[in-house]
Amino acid sequence: MDRRRFLRTAGSATAFSLGGGLALAGTLPGTGALHRLLEETPRERVAAELAGLVRGGLDHRRTLAALAVAASRRVRPFPHVGFKYHTVLALQSVHLTALNLPGRERWLPVFWALDYFKRAQEAERRRSGWTMGPRPAPAAGTAEAARERLVDALDRWDAGAVDPAVLDFARLAPPEQLFEVLFRYGIRDLRAIGHKAIAVQNVHRLLPLVGPEYAAPLLRSLAAALQNHGYGPNPATGDLPPDRTWRAFQAMLGEVPKTWKQGRRDDSARDEFVRTLREVSELDAGRAAVDLLKGGVSAGSIWEALFAAAAELVLTRPAVVPVHAQTSANAFHHVFRHARTGETQLLALLQSAAFIPAFRRGVGATRRELRIDGLEPLAVPGDGADMLREAFSELPRDRASGARKALGYLQRGGPADRLGAGARRQLAFNGQRAHEFKFTEAALENCRAMPPSAWRDRVLAASMAYFTGPAAAPSPVAQEALALLG
């Protein structure tokens, strides 16, 4: 579908704004026509087609909504909830990055996401030829019956049954009831290095953007992702290691006092929990968190420890697998904040704690000088802008020095928001990988969840280890987008 045909189908807009504030003389293009344009236009032409629509008034939110639909319909979360499926998983991060950029810079992450989708779509076409099938016919019944069918299918790890079940429950129940189920099954196992929790967070945040009319592809894609157990046996038929913490932690919930939400802030307990997480197993990490709750320590202090432990792992080894310590902690915390029941909240906390030792095994022993509680600032002469520029200049050559210089900047009173803005701008112009978008937004949001303190400064500075650094020229996708947008 070319742009001329698209505009005939969807209506045109004449006013032009790159900043998202639109004054439209016609009708904004519909998500349906736009996602078909994105799906059907070849990769070598699609950026130019989109740029023409942007010059006609298309806003970035509608574009991202159409991308979410297109990616869910054309890229399957099998055989892994990851790899090519990142074209879906990264979209809420792309949206957050775009929201926090000015003017035409806002479009750079969107054009990156579009190019990434077309590459993933081509990979899917070569490997399997898969596209999402027709929407299942709705089943009669009540919301409670639909919920029972969905839970039963999820419990049996039955991907065929879960597809119609999730749509039936979504049709009959309010969104908060639907996601209370999806949250629980997004956090139930330790497979896929946290991508299932990330997938639930992604769809929960994108659905308001997409709207109810086009929610079905995202929900069907998510439900399939939650049922993915790789090439192993059906988890419903055995006792498999990735499922053991979920069952154990459910048995522990009765030990947690009903007043756990009134726990006290305890920096000493937080620091000790970070040290504990360097040594224990997945199950013992959850047990230690339960003991803290029983001792009256707040969930907030425990989350601060988890964010710090995750940042320490990334600083020690800034590679793709350790990066998921931070992105999965962010996703579990999202579930914790948005779940309606205390049981789901607690399970999200405990499962997040269990993931830290799992990631630590892949990292090995942390370097003592890079531990979060021992990181030393590196002084840089000049004002705050000079210090921040110097910190980013170390990336990616010497990420530890970048972190230490960022800590010096923060300890000298440099605003954390300015560091975050710098990270996003470097990402928009120079980012080329899905994990850069996912990590940057996760790290910044985790830090925003913490009160301003010297501890938060350490966590944010450590995150420099995987932020995007400056480059001699913008990425090829960014260069093309800037040229097309004029």
List the SSEs and their pairings.
Layout: H1 3-10, H2 31-40, H3 43-55, H4 60-74, H5 86-89, H6 91-99, H7 107-127, H8 143-155, H9 159-172, H10 175-186, H11 195-210, H12 215-226, H13 244-252, H14 267-277, H15 282-294, H16 299-316, H17 320-338, H18 342-363, H19 384-393, H20 399-411, H21 416-430, H22 434-448, H23 454-462, H24 476-485
Helix pairs in contact: 2-4, 3-24, 4-7, 4-11, 4-12, 6-7, 6-22, 7-24, 8-9, 9-12, 10-11, 11-12, 11-17, 13-15, 13-18, 14-15, 14-16, 15-18, 16-17, 16-18, 16-23, 17-18, 17-22, 19-20, 20-23, 21-22
Specify Rg, calculated over alpha carbons: 23 Å
Secondary-structure element order, N to C: HHHHHHHHHHHHHHHHHHHHHHHH
Number of helices: 24
- Name the average pLDDT: 93
Give the termini separation: 23 Å
List how many beta strands DSSP finds. 0
Q: What characteristic shape results from the CA principal axes? A: globular
Strand-pairing-aware structural class: mainly alpha
Uncertain regions spanning at least 5 consecutive residues:
5-28
Strand content: under 5%
Outline the biggest β-sheet: none
How helix-rich are the residues, as a percent range?
A: 55-70%
Describe this structure in words.
α7 (107-127) crosses α24 (476-485). 51% of the residues are buried. The protein is globular and about 60 Å long. It has 486 residues and is an all-alpha fold. The model is unreliable at 5-28 (pLDDT under 50). It has 24 helices and no strands.
